[in-house]
Amino acid sequence: MAKKSFSGGLNSLLGESNPAEKTAEPKEPKVTKKEITKTSQIGTKEKETRATFIVSEDLLEKMKALAYWDRALIKDIVSNAFEEYIARYEKKNGEIKEMPKK
Prior knowledge:
The chain has 102 residues and is mainly alpha-helical. It has helices spanning 9-14, 57-70, 74-93. It is elongated and about 90 Å long. The protein starts with 8 loop residues before the first helix and ends in a 9-residue tail after the last helix.
């Protein structure tokens, strides 16, 4: 019976290649930089901002349940509710005018 040589270490047993032969790690995709004009935009996606609202606990629990059962984010459930409300409002009252700039 021939002796086995374990001189290659654990890497030779696991079949890993020589570390010098490793290819360069893939580069992260380039992300366009978002111009941040308010601190509430830090950490958000393009065209998003952070807002705080006071809401009844019952409504919040129902929104959380909807998000859970729909496997969605709460922010998406809230956004959809806002969009539907605005669409109904505009259908009834016409397009919403922008507020005057200060």
